[in-house]
Amino acid sequence: MRVPREAYQLAGVSLLALAAASTLQISGAEACSAIASGAGTTVGSGISAETTFETTSVTVECSTTGNVQDVGGVFTTGFAGYKGQANDSSTVIVNDYDGNGDDIVSIFGGILDNSTPTPVISGLPPVTSSATTSLQSAEGTLELFGGNDRFEMSYGDLSGDPFAPNVDANLDAGAGDDTVIIQAGSIHDIDLGDGVDSVVISGSGTQVGNVTGGIGDDLISVGILEVEEGVFFSEPIVGIISGGEGGDTITIGGGNVEAVDAGAGDDQVSIGGNTAIELDIDGEAGNDTITVSGNATIGGSIFGNDGNDTVNIDGGTVGTTISPGIVDLAGGADIFNMTAGHVTGSVFGEGGGNTYTVSGGTVDGSIYAGSQDDSVSISGNASVGIDPGEGGEGTDSVGLEDGDDTFDMTGGTLAGAVSGGAGNDVITLRGGTINSFLEGNDGNDQILVSGGVLAGEVTGDVGDDLIVISGGAIGSSVSGGAGFDNVSVTGGTITGGIDAEHVHLSGGTIGGNITGLGPDTLVIDGIGAVDPLNLSDGVLFSGTGANGTITGTDLAAGGKSQNFTGFDNFSSDNSTLRFSGGTQGINHLNLGSGSTLFINGNVTMPG
């Protein structure tokens, strides 16, 4: 026999207020017994004696058949009910006789319209008596024990109006694959226990304490209700959500949540809508995926922790302007994707070889790629700022750090610099704007500029670097740094000069001098030219023991002149040069077929 749900709607009495050894009288038939355990205390004597009963637990047993019981409605909260003494360690146990059935607990606010005749309870003391007991305590616990249990809270009806239940107790679902649905009212902490459990919390007036998943692949949903009529979003208030061990799925579509701790396992965490997370999101151990979208706000930071994690920022805000929030991917081969939204702090990777793809949104701080072979891509309308660092002197928007890293930029804006760190890095600028410098740092780096705008200089730094400029605009100079460096310019604009051991010029505009040349290291021709070669008037080519060749190029056009110093040899083939006077530091000058040398004034050559 399955007792009808309406049979348990008690007029004005909450199960949490039942006295010791009370029996629920349902329309004259005994269906459930509620037995309170505790101790009575008598103060005074005679007619002035007052007896109180402090409840430590209440056990509800229903005489139903099978392994399913319906005790829906016994938690009526539409009226004040019986109030009694404080009970600091109370427990309500709802179970079949063996304690491991598949229990169903349904809690409605108010009483149902069809609850007729009104059920009554016998065995309770008068409401005015000091002997009244109560489980209205934050320490109380509803314990479902083993079994695949179902616990529900939703609106009921009180005098024709919706009424939400309020349960002053915790819920312990116990072992088993449990289902918890909270659509209205309030309840304290929820512990799903071991098993593949699910909890769905919705309703804009709903309030729930902390939610713990326990061991198992749990589903935790907040602010989203999926029914036949569609998907409805709401804004409940929830404490800390902890997934526990297992591959948990945590989806929050609205409301206010204190913090999210996914726990161990390969977890999926999605934060969207108008959700407000007050503190942090922590993936903990495992290969986790954390996604923030919509207008969600994360008051703290996002931590991937151990494992190969993926963090997607598709909207929302991480941190505040007063207390910037970071994204810390921690160890593992992690992935960071950003298409929209706002990170008020920096993005950090550690070891593992990380991938960063930023095509939109704003990072106020920097991206620090990590210590292994990382990849960073900036495109679209992405914006990355500057993290000043502890001393205030840092200027990197993107720090590739150690490892053989790859950086590619086709759009967006970097307020600071790009630094390669130790390792053989490949840094490519094809579009967008970098408002500072670009530096390869230690290692044999490749720096390729084919588009975009760089406000500062290009520096290879330590190592045998290759720098290729085929387009774009560089607001300062190009320097290879320490090592035997190669610079090739086929197009684009360099406001300053070039300093490197080997320089190949075939196109582009260069506003400064060409310095630092070594043996067999200056080649001027039209091979691979994207734009015509345009050097400044009076440009100086200088080096130590340098050797150079010019082929099929007219450097004297427009009356422009060139100056040389530190050259052992310089050969011209079918080209034009102009010396404007003074000393030209070429020991041996060879003018080949079709070449012309214009000399303005007196010229002295050491050879």
Summarize the structure.
By secondary structure, the chain is mainly β. Helix content is 0%, strand content 47%.
Walkthrough of the structure:
This protein is mostly beta strands. It has 3 domains: 1-188, no CATH class; 346-432, no CATH class; 457-607, no CATH class. It is 0% helix and 47% strand. The chain has no helices and 61 strands. The strands form 5 sheets. It has a 53-stranded mixed sheet that branches. Strands 10-11 form a two-stranded antiparallel sheet. It is rod-shaped. The model is unreliable at 1-37, 53-99, 108-139 and 389-393 (pLDDT under 50).
What oligomeric state do these chains adopt?
A: single chain
Q: Strand content of the residues, in percent? A: over 45%
Number of domains: 3
Count of extended strands: 61
- Shape label: rod-shaped
| Class per helix and strand makeup | mainly beta
For the report, how would you describe the main beta sheet? 53 strands, mixed
The unreliable regions are: 1-37, 53-99, 108-139, 389-393
